[in-house]
Design a protein that fits this description.
There is one protein chain. The chain has 264 residues and is an alpha/beta fold. The chain folds into two domains: 175 residues, Spore Coat Polysaccharide Biosynthesis Protein SpsA, Chain A, CATH 3.90.550; 84 residues, no CATH class. 42% of the residues lie in helices and 25% in strands. The strands form two sheets. Strands 1, 2, 3, 4, 5, 6, 7, 8 and 11 form a nine-stranded mixed β-sheet that branches. Strand 1, helix 1 and strand 2 form a beta-alpha-beta unit. It is globular and about 60 Å long.
Length: 264
């Protein structure tokens, strides 16, 4: 049995494309929905998904883990609604599942219990080739019971109890087809990070101001655009590197505002 699990919030523009790519792969589809106000739940039910309604949390990995906990399959594939499974990856998952059914044994030390999936990221009209955005490996496929999300950060990887392997094929990630999509996520991520820093008593002093307003942005831009050859993606590579660098000062400014509101 193969389980596909997702957490969603207002994903009517993406969800059908995602679920269509796994409808002949999944024995069960579980969608944990965080207070969607569009047609997300209706679309999920069209694909015979089990829908679990909950609150929309700032760290959506909490809802992802909720979906993972409900999975009954021997193999579990965790997806985001803006991702698509290509044919090669689909065949890898099916073959891996069939192989385990034939063996009917638990994985030994040398066998993987989870797999890195290579991901292609769509940004402003094309898939990025460089800038640290390919192959952009993510742990999304695992044997049930061997992986969990720490639920501490929006960009974390799964914690795996065992060996990791590499899957064939790709996830096609349609995260930012329009710039306004990127800006919406930019706002969400920087706000989450500012709140995380405040919770950890991070102090916005002069040294940290210098780090977040100058040093970190310069390092990030250089790393993505020069070291990782983001320039190969031309204007898309420049915009991605520039906006990634802008995360740091934006987060810092939001932290200062949060602290000011907390201590008027």
């Amino acid at each position: 049995m193969i389980s596909v699990v997702l957490a969603t919030h207002n994903e009517e523009l993406n969800l059908a494309r995602c679920l269509k790519s796994v409808k002949d792969l999944a024995d069960e589809i579980i969608v944990v929905d965080g207070e969607s106000t569009d047609n997300t739940v209706k679309i999920a039910k069209k694909f015979n998904a089990t829908v679990i309604s909950t609150t929309n949390k700032s760290n959506f990995h909490i809802n992802k883990q909720m979906a993972m906990d409900k999975a009954k399959g021997e193999l579990v594939l965790q997806l985001d609604a803006d991702e698509v499974v290509d044919q090669e990856l689909k065949e890898f998952i099916i073959n891996e599942h069939q192989s385990r059914l034939i063996k009917k044994t638990k994985p030994v030390n040398s066998q993987p219990v989870a797999w890195w999936l290579k991901r292609k990221n769509y940004f402003l009209g094309a898939f990025l080739k460089k800038g640290g955005q390919y192959p952009d490996p993510v742990i999304r496929l695992y044997i049930n019971g061997f992986a969990r999300l720490p639920q501490e950060n929006v960009h974390e990887q799964m914690s795996v109890n065992g060996e990791l392997g590499w899957a064939d094929g790709h996830l096609l990630h349609y995260s930012n087809p329009r710039f306004k999509d990127y800006l919406r996520k930019f706002k969400t991520y920087t706000t989450f990070e500012a709140k995380r820093l405040q919770k950890n008593n991070f102090q916005p002093n002069f040294i940290n101001l210098t780090q977040y307003l100058f040093i970190k942005p310069l390092i990030t831009f250089f790393k993505l655009f020069i070291r990782h050859k983001g320039f190969v993606d031309l204007h898309r590579g420049f915009i991605f590197a520039f906006m990634s660098a802008l995360h740091h000062p934006t987060t810092f400014i939001k932290l200062v505002k949060l602290n000011s509101a907390h201590h008027p």
